[in-house]
Structures are given as structure tokens and as C-alpha cells.
């Protein structure tokens, strides 16, 4: 997996480094030392002694040793008639030898090999830290089998078995707590280092750490399907998909390399013919141009920045599933939020129950019975209230649930509905409007013939919602809220939070249509929702962000970007990170182009030597671009909104 960024840079390293790893191994060091010594003695022999032939042979050996991978790749490319960067460098080195400049020819190959290696190493660093996500989960687990505790490899633990987790242990597999209790540090997955209390019935995840208590966990997923493994797999996949900028650079290079060769040919012929420049000198300048033209720095600039951004985000509990998503967020000017469960906690409370010709208890009993099969936050609130009042639920038949509308079913001989569709107008209307005016979500409980009751619920706005919207505005991002709830509640929430635009009373398909309209009006649209109720709108938007997705595989699957923790401030973090990534990419591409053009101009005038071209125009530039890209993952600029700590690795460890 550590090969993604390099694999995507097809121009630079197509095949060059297919087998060598980014980790410095002994063999590689030995090769560098041997080649370096050959080069040194060769240069000494040629310039400081009279053993020119021996010196030339030493330099040839140095060239072959340090350029062996590159020369192989160049040969393969030429056979397939593809002009890769390897071809450019090989031509330049061979040319230097042919025109009697073996010291420079060998130096070019040597420096190039070192540059190549350093790039690999730096790029690999970002990727390896994704692999480190996986290593957070321990390789073994303590399982209770036949009454005794045995330690076995995590692959051998079956779903349904019970694992024992002691204080300080990292939980080995995803599961449900069946006994014991502890606070658990979930930073590995959520990026949030404040521990969460876990007791019987709570979900726990592989890679998270049991702090002080003892837990018995019934395993619910095999190790390969654990949340952390999926996150790592998805991030890995994301790193492999090029973003639009990268695709552009790759396409550009296809015409670029042959173009450069043509330009070099012109430079070799025109000055001697037109201006009387010595022929060998003209060839030399053309070779310098070939080296300068190496688009390595350009090609590597974007993937490294992207990988750096994606990796940092993953360590902060934000799973970005594609480089294009990261780039799109950085460019978006509008952010669309779903209301319930995204800007509000979604933990509704029943405030009022009102009956029309029916006792309140019966209204609640009918509603709770119907809602017993729905997973909507409204349903949960109604069930909870009924539970508190000790109401016994009735059997429901012919149950139907309609997204954005409500539920219907038959109890005994009659059909009832709970939701927002009103069969007719009636005495309930004024009460309904009064409750709505209080900012409550009101659902109607009805029969075929009319409304028999109202249930009013209140939701709580998330603490961070207002600050997040303000932070987005400060970045010039317009905020829009979509809700299936009524207009009055919607507007009240939007005003409180400071949302710019609000559209209420929308059915799920109308939310999708709204997202489409916003895309027409504003270009790139990022939609933030809970990922379950809002899946269609998330899918339709340019980028769908699912909040609080930990524990919901469906949400992790559905969205382009997944925020593990249900913490709205992470959205502002995500935007800051994306903007920083996009700006680093821009800086890298611009500076690479400017420096290359500058050096190329000097080369045409004969002011740059071959080895300088490699050291500055290729190696130096590539390294500068990589160093800049790694900045994305460092503190400053894109710091976390809520808690100030920016983990290069993870918070709190
Ligand atoms: P939001 O856009 O705020 O997330 P939804 O689209 O999930 O809201 O639901 C919109 C409206 O549909 C709710 O305000 C409610 O009136 C009605 N509704 C949806 N599901 C249910 C349910 N299970 N019980 C009662 N009403 C429901
Ligand atoms: Mg919703």
C-alpha cells in the first residue's frame, strides 16, 4: 500500500521503483555508497590525475550502478514508444558521456537516484501513517472459551465469542459490551481524545483503548470488517484515485515530454546554425534543458499534498474517501445541512400530547405502537415518553413507513397514521399553529376520517452549530439548511444558528431536487447529513458528508466524506484542511512551473550546468514541493475548531 502516490506519478517513476520500498534498506545504502565512491574517485582521476581512461571507466561504473533502474525503465519506455521522464534523464546522461562529459553524466544519474529515493521516502511517510491506523488494533485477543481465558490471534476469533479487555488494553475487535464498564479512548477512530463511558449494550471498536475498567465484549464482526479496517481500506483506496488536477497534469505530460524532446532538438540545431554557437556547447545546453524539463516535481506535488491531507484527516476522525472529494470541498462556496440530527442533536423530547375527543393517554398509546417499528428520531422520542408513562403497546398490522411523511398501520379494526399528512382541516388547526409557533415539531395522530391528536416535540440545537456556521461564513462559505420539518421550526432553527438560507417542508426527493437547484446556482455543493435518512441528497451533491457515522456501516458506505464523531465542528475543520490542501497544491504547481521555466531560460543561454539542473531544477524542487505538501498535516492554518490540539499523529497519545 505504500506505493500509491508513486504509482500515480506515472511520468516520474513508471516502473522505476516497482520493487524498492520507501524504507531505507541496507542494500540500498550500500548501492549509494558504492556509486558515490566510484563517482568520487572517477572525478578525481579525470581531473586531478592523468589516468583519464581509468577515471572514465570509474564514472561509467558509477553511472551504471546508480542509474540501473532508471536505464531499464527508459529502455522499456522507448521500446513501447512512450516518452517518460526516465527517457529524458537517460538521454541527458548518455549525451553527456558522448560529448566527452562523463563526470556530469554520472553525477546526473547519481543525484537523480538520490532524489528519487528521497521522494519515495517522503511520500511513503504520509502513507505509512495510514498503515499505522491498522496497527493500532492488537494482533491477539483474550477470548473466553470453555470457561477459561485463552489468547489467540484476532483472525481466529469468531463472531459471537466473548473477548476480555483489561484496563489499558486496546480493544481487539468490534463488538458489544456484555459485562463490565469503562471509559474508552476512541481517538483512533474518531480523533476525539476525550474518553467515552461504555457499559453493557454499548458498541466498542477495535483499536480503541479501554482506560480504567474491565470489559467483556461479544464480538460482532470478523477482524477484516472492523470499523478501523474499513477506514484504512477506504483511505487506501482514496489515495489511489487521482483528483481532477492530477488527471490534468498526467494528460498534460503526455504531450509535454515529446514536446520537450523536440525543443531540445531545436536548441541543438538552431543556435550553431544561426548564431555560430559551438555544436558541442549547443548539445550540452539541450541536455540541460532535457533534465530541467523533468516534470517530476510537478507530478509529485499534487498527490503528496492530497495524501498528506487525507491521512491527517483520518487521524482526526474524518474519513475522506477520494482525493476529488478533498479538492471539491476546498473549492466549494456553499454548504448544505440537513436539520434533524445534523444541526440539531436529533434527540427529541415529547413536550405536549393533545387529544381531540380522545384521551391523551390513548393518543400516545396509538402513536407509540405505530412508531415502535420506526427508527426516526421522532419515533424514538415518542416511544421513550410512552415507556416512561408505562403505556402498554398494541399489536400493529399492515405497517407502512414513508420517509419524510410518517408511519401508518392498523391497530385492532382501525387504521391510524402518525406524521405530517393532514387528512382534513379541523379544530386541531389552531392548536397546531400555536405549538409550531413555539418552535416545536408537531406530528398529527389521525384516523382515516380526521385528526385525533397532536404530539409536539422539541429538539436541541447542537452546541457547536452556531460557531461552525460562523467559521464557515468567515471562510466565505454560504450555508443552506434543508428540512422535512415545518417552515416555522425550520426558520427558527436557521435564525438561531445563523444559516443563510432555509428550505422547509421538503420530502426526501424534494431535498434531492433542492440540492440540484443549488448546484446550478452555486457550482460545487457540499451536503452534510446523517447519512441514513439523507442518503439520496448526500449521493446527489458533489460531495456528501455523513456525520456521526461511527457504528453505521451504511453511512460509511454512502458518503464521500465520513465524520466519525457526531461533532458538527469537524465540518469547519474539514473545510479548513481542504482549503489548505488546495492552496498547497496550487503553490506547488505554480512554483514548480516558475522555477522550471526560469532555469530553462538560463539553460538556453548556457548559464546552467547539467549537475546544477539536476540538483536544483529536479531534486531540490521535488524535495521542496514534498516538504510543502507535508505541511498540510502539520499544525497551523487548518487547526481543529473545537479542541485546539492538532495531532500530527493523534490527539491525546
Ligand atoms: P429532517 O429533514 O428534519 O431530517 P425528515 O425528512 O426525517 O426530517 O422528516 C420530515 C418530517 O416527516 C418530520 O418533521 C415529521 O413530520 C415527518 N416524519 C417523518 N418520519 C416520521 C415518523 N416516523 N413519525 C412521525 N413523523 C414522521
Ligand atoms: Mg434527517
Question: Which keywords apply here?
Answer:
single chain; 653 residues; alpha+beta; Calcium-transporting ATPase, cytoplasmic transduction domain A; 8-stranded antiparallel beta sheet; 21 strands; binds magnesium ion; metal-binding; ATP hydrolysis activity; Cation-translocating P-type ATPase
Written overview of the protein:
The protein has 653 residues and is α+β, with helices and mostly antiparallel strands. Among the domains are: 256 residues, no CATH class; 84 residues, Calcium-transporting ATPase, cytoplasmic transduction domain A (Distorted Sandwich); 116 residues, Calcium-transporting ATPase, cytoplasmic domain N, CATH 3.40.1110.10. 53% of the residues lie in helices and 17% in strands. The protein contains 23 helices and 21 strands. The strands form three sheets. Strands 1, 2, 3, 4, 5, 6, 7 and 8 form an eight-stranded antiparallel β-sheet that branches. The chain has a seven-stranded mixed β-sheet with strand order 9-21-20-19-10-17-18, sandwiched between helices. A six-stranded antiparallel β-sheet has the order 11-16-15-14-13-12. It is elongated. The N terminus and C terminus are likely disordered. The structure holds adenosine-5'-diphosphate and magnesium ion (MG). Magnesium ion binds next to helix 13. The site of adenosine-5'-diphosphate has 21 residues, from helix 13, helix 15, strand 13, strand 14 and strand 15.
